[in-house]
Specification:
The protein has about 800 residues and is an alpha/beta fold. About 35% of the residues lie in helices and about 15% in strands. About 45% of the residues are buried.
Amino acid sequence: MSMRAVDSEADTCRKYIVPKLHDAGWNDDLINEQRTITDGRIVVAGDKVRRKKSGRVDYLLRIARDFSMAVVEAKASYKKPADGLQQAKDYAQMLGLKFAFSSNGLGIVEFDFLTGQIAERADFPSPTELWTRLRKSQGPTDDAAATRLLTPGSRVQGKQPRYYQEIAVNRVVQAMLQGQRRVLLTMATGTGKTFVAFQIIWKLWNSRWNARGDHRKPRVLYLADRNFLVDVPKDREFAVFEDARHKIESGQIVKSREIYFAIYQAIAQDERRSGLYKEFTRDFFDLIVVDECHRGSAKDESNWRDILEHFQPAYQLGMTATPLRDDNVDTYGYFENPVYTYSLKQGIEDGFLAPYKVRRIVTTADAVGWRPKPGEIDRDGRPIPDQVYQTPEFDRLLALKPRTEAIARHLTDHLRQTNRYDKTIVFCVDQEHALEMMKALTNLNADLAQRHADYVVRITSDEEEIGRGHLDRFSDVEKTTPVIVTTSKLLTTGVDVPTCKNIVIARVVNSMTEFKQIIGRGTRVRDDYGKYYFTILDYTGSATRLFADPVFDGEPALLTEEGIDGQGRVTSPPREPEPAEEYESRESQDEFVDDSPTDCSFPGPAGGERRKFHVDQGYVEIAADVAYEMDEHGNQLKATKYTDYTMEQVRSMFSSAAELRSKWTRAEERSRIIDALAERGITIERLAEVAGQHDADPFDLLCNVAYSLPLRSRRERAEQVRKGNTDFLGRYTKEAREILNLLLDKYIEHGVAEFRIPDILKVSPLSSHGNIIEIAARFGGTDKLREAVAELQSLLYAA
């Protein structure tokens, strides 16, 4: 009986699946073959990074260029048609699609998310059939609306939307076409909310959609609360709209444009202005886009809410980076549940957002508090009230200059150890604190400040246009300086600094919403500039505490806690993080609409006002070093040493040292083990450095850490092979033994990676014994050479 030839997966695609798709009416423009949908998570191990495998679907079927319909997973002909169905379903769910297919070329299996049923098919459904089924189930049922939904997005900028951006655009447009007048979009900072807003407006603009159904293009108002949040989109993403754009400012009213930009403050009503927004009729705008809508626009008592209610007939799109929390419940109450959410955690998992390390640094003033001496006066000659001042009071009630200088010194040392030109944002308590921090950092980096007057700058509302110039240069990836920026709240949101590598928290942050905005300043990935991760330096415990919040959705790659002394030097006594309650009760959760004032004032005795006290003298040290790592599932932070973390991971992979040895002796398996450890954030180099065992064989190092076995050096293992395996070496000629001994010498010096054949044969001193063919001939050929090297490796780990 003759057997049918077995087709590989590639053969299945070429011979069967593509022809069947063509037969069903899917032309090449509607088929994306081998479509990469994620970049692959970035894994940080020490100062090295690697990417996990990117997500890729075999076939992505589209009904239009920017509207995906189904996933097809292909399997080799010897497998069952349904073998790829679960994978297809997983991708379909990720892509927000309702149809998933699996095929071995001979049979086809479909899963319909609309009905929850699996069906075996002889052929693929046509584009029209799937589109009809989708519309019948979830709309739009109106033909005109369906045509508008399929309107292509813009490619003027040459940028193709990522999969989640395409979902976001289509979900919003579909909701609006079906009459939903308030729409919310939740997307993590750095995932391109502005780009999505532009694509939404482009679709509606080019399909001539408007709220009243007239035959005209829509009038859109893009609202935010800071000038750079409207100026940058207007001049960058929305530049293609050219003269249709207009920014409402300086009290000027223009009604002849179609894409308007404004900050609330310019059109709102207050004690000085009657409200410029009232100059427009209630139905003037068809769509209002509210950027960073969590910052007060939806609060009942906010005068910004009056603007949204005045334009109640318009469709209103709110965009936020933060999921529902107690501090943004008004936003969700006004806009209702989001039509789509793309979280920080998902962005990091997909490799579109940068992971981060966290360092928890504790000064002695923060660890035990600071108390004035009896009768001590401040800089202005005022008696300092006798109490113990702790982290929440520093630079709010009391400005302790030695603490500021200790933090600045530690940060400077961090930059010296990494890269002094890594862009860094320091979040301070208020504008005065930002000024003091700027001065301290400038003095500590005087050598670079001498060459670059803007090496350290303060960017707060006090700087006005000067600060805007600093910000423009700081955000520009081509500009080297400014390097360090101190601020308070002005840069918590809306600032795109793609190459920012350090986020410094020098003030208490209680709001999860604000915390996510702050760390969002560092989440951009720039492969071309070597920006794959960033570091959060936490001097107040805010990050340590908020990472432990169950609702936080983006786990750090590494979290450490360390103390610093008055010179900014790291000390090592371990210290547990402060409990959350101690901070929550001390600081109000201010709405961060504008930057904090230059100097904080607080209620004093008998209802009077009390300015904060300034202490310039004294000495502050730094006090603790505790490491936090994610568990093996990436779900929870726990305090652990690097070696303890490695022990847990190795034990979870191998039940015993014998099991590890059985796999380690084979080069291919050894490579897989090293890769698997790297995916968990463990590298042999880093482990050797932490353990102080640079001469140990990696296998012995792992066994010592995981199973408490004695350490052996590479030299000891090599000498054991030479002395205890004379039978093995005796099988070869003198010339072949010389080659094997040289390989052992290379192993002693550099490790097991030196057994790469034939590459190592090209390196001195082995290359002096002839070319690869000549060396292999001494063993009886290439295959015999490889067998000898493989056996040599096995003998190294025989015991």
